[in-house]
Request: fold
Amino acid sequence: MRKVLRQLKQYKRDAFLCIGFTALEVIMEILMPFITSIIIDRGLEAANLPVVYRYGAVMVVMAFFGLLFGALAGKRAASASSGLAANLREAIYANIQTFSFSNIDKFSVPGLVTRMTTDITNVQNAFMMIIRVAVRAPMNLVFSFAMCLMISPRLSSMFLIAVAFLVVVIGTIMVVTLRIFSQVCRRYDDLNASVQENVSAIRVVKAFVREDYENVKFSKASKMLRDLSVKAEGLLAFNNPAMMVAVYFCIISVSWFGAQFIVAGDMSTGDLTSLFSYIMSLLMSLMMLSMVIVMISMSLASVRRIGQVLDEEADLRDPENPVMEVPDGRIDFDHVSFSYKHGSGKNALSDIDLHIQSGETIGVIGGTGSGKSSLVNLICRLYDVDSGAVRVGGVDVRQYDTEVLRNQVSVVLQKNTLFSGTILDNLRWGNPDATEEECVEACQAACADEFIDRMPDGYQTRIERGGANVSGGQKQRLCIARALLKKPKVLILDDSTSAVDTATDAKIRAAFAREIPGTTKIIIAQRISSVQSADRILVLDDGRIDAFDTHENLLNTNAIYQDIYNSQMEGGGDFDQPA
Reply:
């Protein structure tokens, strides 16, 4: 909660002003029944019209100021709560940007979306209720009860009975609903996950005619959310009946005993009238307070979920005095072991001892789950090793400034992503200062110019969100061009030419040899043809190095490589299938 409230920052002043204006509004309202009592006792019953006019004018002025203070408090509350929500979104988003892959793996994408939308909206509404109603209601309650004690201490004891009854009822409701609302937040995650998955894979859904299945899955998630919401709201429904029981109990009790006190001369008509006003004010304050408690109970689950993201600290941190320059593209793995869950005992890589010279072209091949992507993720420090060391340019990657390292180790990941904007906008992710000529050269090296030149707007062609308006092969080539613009010392292609034909694949590799001869190139591929011209080829099997040699030597000495080669050359399928 403290971490969430720290995000108020520049809006603290608005929050405190709201509280101050609310207090002044309450004072104006509390004095109204007192002035009414004076008008009745000293003006109407005494037939003294000047008193009626004088105190009537005072009531009008107080009502005006009460309205003014209420409007100012509402404006400040809106500013503070909206500001808190905006700062929370920015803080969560900024913290997510610092996450390593291992941090991101702890949260689902729908879960993060829910936190930044539904959960923050819950917190925003609760905070507004707190600085407005949670200040107003207790003050109203205390002042109203104080005035009741001044008018009639004996009748005021009736309120204590009503308050005790309401505290028990509201407390019970809050304890039960708090657990339910925690489950509701998780169901929102499931619902968002269903929508995201369906929309992002809509082509697959339609291709396999699975619309009905997806509808049933979504309906199931929606129904579970509805059932929980109905259960929670059903419990909250007891709030109003309990409040009305307390209200009618107080009204009947005060009417019965107040009438007796007036007859006995122990209380004036004006006092009884103002007492009724204070009763309603006191009980309405209790009702508002119960609403605040319910809103807080709903938002507590959201506060915890937001706090989980804000509390998450990046696993990968730069050293105090980081190395700010990568000397060359030399890569060394010194007996590296790595697992995605540290201490689980399930290693993705085990005892990798590998040494690559600067400027070499290295092919990486192996079956599914052999650790190919895990290996290259360690080079640009997307993850940290469990044991051993990964060195680039002779320096442990943990000693570099992360930004410097990743600018010099350019990666085209297995899953290619383009962003909404023009082709040039996407290319300049690699180098924001790149000229159009440099972008064209990079696209020529990646064989992307072939299809860009055919587009009506050329490099100004707009890419839809996620690259929906380009093919898989086109997307891969644009991502390769984007990586080349960084002019890296190490270029990693993680199965990044799988969607292009073999002729284009050969052109891209020839361009690499011609355009970036001094860059170390690591090519992960499924096709033998993509790696056979490499200086050396690494064969991985179950997270271990099975062989590391030239294409010719591997064909003569390595059984795994022979099986892959034979299965592809004979048309038996790719290396993931049994030879």
